[in-house]
Batch of 2 targets.
Target 1
Amino acid sequence: MLDQPDDVPRPEAVTPSERALRESTLVVRAQDGDAGAFERLVHSYEKELLRLGYRMLSDLGEAQDAVQDSLVLSWRQLPTLEDPRAFQAWVYQLMTRRCLNLLRSRRRRRTSLTGEGDLDQEPAQRAEGDHLDPPSAAAQSSALGAGLDVALTTLSAELRACWVLKELHHLSYPEIAYAIGVPVATVRGRIARARLHLAKEMSEWR
Amino acid sequence: MALTDTGRLGCGRDVDDVWAHIGDEPDEHEATCPDCQAARADLAGLASATTAMVDSDRDDARLVNQPSALAAIVAIARTEVRRGRTLPLTLPPRQPSDLPADRPPVSETGELTISEQAVASIIRQASDRVADVEARRCRVSVVDDEPRSTATEAGSPTRFSVELSLTVGRAVRIPGLATQLRRAITTAIDDRIGVGVASIDIHVEDLHDA
């Protein structure tokens, strides 16, 4: 859509100050319409959101699209964010929900093509596309890492989201509850079940 | 396989309890319980694989966004910027008779206006040069300070009124900082926009650690 670079330098773009500012200050400025502050937020979150998307979707191209969609949405919805200190949990929420929606529509697509609603098969059958194959070099060098890589794709989307946010992104239980929109107790239960499932899968794999 | 779907081991211990101190030495019960030992082995494998995955994902050069995609996100934001009010830099004539004889009519020189967002950006830039303060929200409006002499009114510069919210360092003396900040902002607006500043209302909304 709008992928041409900015044509005219705007005041907020020529700001020389790259002085370190608190994240909450950048968030308030972005809410106030400062696109330069938003740009700094984009750069501080894009990588971790992509890692989240990749582990949720197992597809690099889809994960990249989800990052773009979520960050554009964050700009549009920023004025609705009440507490600027909640930005991290909030942007994780936008990204996680985007991924869960994509997984749901994948499942629907598959169901309508095959005429069967076998939801349990969803995780194992990954979208063919930009999968980083073989698994990343470091994970490959450790057999354990590679085993987890595969085991993770056998988790249901809901369990995977909770586990990835907790163990790979170190969000707190309340932050995960907020991101996914379920009670903290549910998050706790899902993470425990995800751990069990992964440990089992991996011990069978070994 | 010692783990069951209930989350409880054969010995009755909760898997979460085992997980909670997987990095520590086994406690008295775990040291002798075969269920706990098997669970600890499986969970330890998961724990180290998890650490390995965090590290390898972070270092994986293929796991990056395209610079063009990031530029597109920012470009979309810029095209959708909420620019706020349009502020005139010169006062319009009330009626033709207001125009002084030695001045060209305003309609020939044209209007000069600036967006509130552009002024806010200049204000933030100026305040970023002042230590121990981070400017946040900014509102700018034109002061309508009648009565002025009608002879000089049309075409003469407007004056701005600014409202600014801040967070300041915990140790800083606020009145002195406010003076310094007002001076920096007034100078920047005069230099860049050429209008005066009638007032700068400052609201300290938070204190931060230095």
Target 2
Amino acid sequence: MSTFHNVVVVGGGGAGLRAAIAVAEANPRLTVAVVSKVYPMRSHTVSAEGGAAAVAGPDDSLEEHLYDTISGGDWLVDQDAAEAFVQEAPRELLRLEHWGCPWSRQRDGRIAVRAFGGMKKKRTWFAADKTGFHMLHTLFQTTLSNPDVVRYDEWFVTSLLVDDGQVYGVVAIELATGRVETVIANAVILCTGGCGRVFPFTTNANIKTGDGMALAYRAGAPLKDMEFVQYHPTGLPFTGILITEAARAEGGWLLNKDGYRYLQDYDLGTPTPHPVLRSMELGPRDRLSQAFVHEHDKGRTTDTPYGPIVHLDLRHLGAEVIDAKLPFVRELCSKYENIDPVKELIPVRPVVHYMMGGVHTDIHGATSLTGLYAAGEVACVSINGANRLGSNSLPECLVFGARAGQAAAEFVTSTRTAPGAAVYAQARDAQRLLEREFARHAEGSHIGGRERIADIRTEMQTAMENGAGIYRDGESLAKAADRLRDLRERFGRATVDDRSRTFNTEAVALLELSFMLDVAESIVVSALHRGESRGAHQRTDFPGRDDERFLAHSLVRRTPDGGGLVDYMPVKITQWPPGERVYGR
Amino acid sequence: MADTITMQVARYRPGQEAEPVFQSYDVPLRKEWAVLDGLNHIKDHVDGTLSYRWSCRMGICGSCGMTVNGSPVLSCATFLTDYAPGPVRVEPLRNFPVVRDLVVDIGDFMAKLPSVKPWLIRDDEPPEGEYLQTPDELDDYKKFSMCINCMLCYSACPVYALDPAFVGPAAIALAQRYNLDSRDEGAADRRDVLSSAEGVWACTFVGECSTACPKGVDPAGAIQRYKLTAATHALKDFLLPRGAR
């Protein structure tokens, strides 16, 4: 069976819902569908805590937000994109306010802002420490008021329909029934978020399996800057649950096992009792996570069953500030660590959090394939360069979600190319191909022994952590590449025991794993080629930044044998030539 | 502490089982493990056919509501050790049709939600800047904005169990979230649904919803408060000529 919509948005998180609204607003005659593997309000935007950056006060300027973003990204940021971003972010956050987002307020009723890492001014809007939750529910509830936005909840997209370099829709499994459906469209916008689950220890939800990245990659669109994986410095051990950067913005300290604010040893400034912007605990995430590794090497971290940790100290903030500004932090610590941050230290360690890289798009969210757009974490515009600043990703979802929605609407309004026979043939074949795929993975039908999905997934995650972690080198990456090749071969023998058509989560796990293997390979091959250290990509065999050779975005394309071919494109520099990243001095 | 615990998990696959049956699995009993970690252990290492929803595993996405030893809970925020020595009985949320194993059909809630118009309603164009809202005004509705749509309140609600037409705790709380928002002017638009027989008046104030809520939303409080509003309106309708209402 197939249905038609002018625009199909894949993913119902912050970027996806914003894109859908933008399509509906741009041209009310268009039909727009949101296809998501979870109900939209389950999307991972819901977990974002600290806030959303946009210039708000008279003491701040677009220039300063721009500079912080560019220097924070170690000059791998496209400056024209970042200009558009800082300019449109305030308007987007205001729209959320007009739609009812419960932003935290100043006493006089105006929006409140807080400090954030790597930001020279207070410009991070927040809704206590559940900012993503409130933004997502506001967007979701707003789309409920718009009958033009049609939802396909719990539909898992398995591939894009492509003919002659143009995208004409998606193939998806309706999870409740197991039916394979096709949604034909004039344009598709990928808003599926990141891929943290390719690593073993991540803040990312179970659904963050890089689906959109793999869909685009397989369809022939290049992925950009995939070697840049952000480790957030403060995750809870075992669970990987994020303790928001806002905890440090409100004045929290990072202490090593001797109770020493160790960041002072890593060119991040000198400790002061009150937080100083762009200094110490308010440095950028890449530098803080790297400092942790050095502390560990010096034997100054504490060992736990779930890896080495340092401590985040909020005790001096007091119960009143913590309850007003960081209630979720207190709730999470109490529930998952059985500690009260008002009285006790919080154990934390760096945790995979965000993907700077993603599907290569232009400033309007257009990918290299006609009719295919991408926005949010799945995309790489790039405004985040080699390291994203905290609180830039939520407004990125809005600004580029809206831009992609508008661009897709314009495209389908002006160019009415109808899908040809090849697309309908693909749609007809989709069911058969998927059936064949599952038959191949069915119990007992393969030679060479059975493999468990979870075993391959775990080994992939270990390979990524060991080979492409906070610090990498040529040897570790080559080893990871070998492991991934081996795992790909074993994936052919992965077994699906579940024969039911109804809500078959084992089949979904298999498809997600195959997406993740592609994404993992793209990360490793991109990291292997970049012989320098910049932002979140730290090569111990190439310790310095090399602007001569690598002031460039990597683009990885999939080859027919499943490998990745890497080349480079220039970074757009408009006003800030590459300089030194200075924090705390 | 024993090093394993038995989980008795409700299984139901349409076409395979005529009705739900329980299947027992022994899983490691670790201090950090939530009920969800036990299920993931089963899924990954013992029985790949077990189906359930989960995502954020930090109590905010609302996916993993289940009935554990009789109570509706988020399985990611409920710990195995609290049920030691076991067994731990895991069933789907009550009051919903079961799709498969621990997965329930929440289509009814998703269809009802738009009927209470849970979005900001204004006739005028928005201002250039933000609508002003003081921290006190924010506090008036903040609690009701914390709903994660996890469905535990519907599972706990004895009224919904008997009368599936009841709009239900979360939807009414979300309507109140907007009614009480100083920026909103849509209370009249929501009145018909909320004041109907399937709205607040269906509630017999058992309060189970507020007990079950993992986020402190207090839907029972929202419903009681709206009953007062609705009663006041009904009285005005009765006493006052049309123009003076």
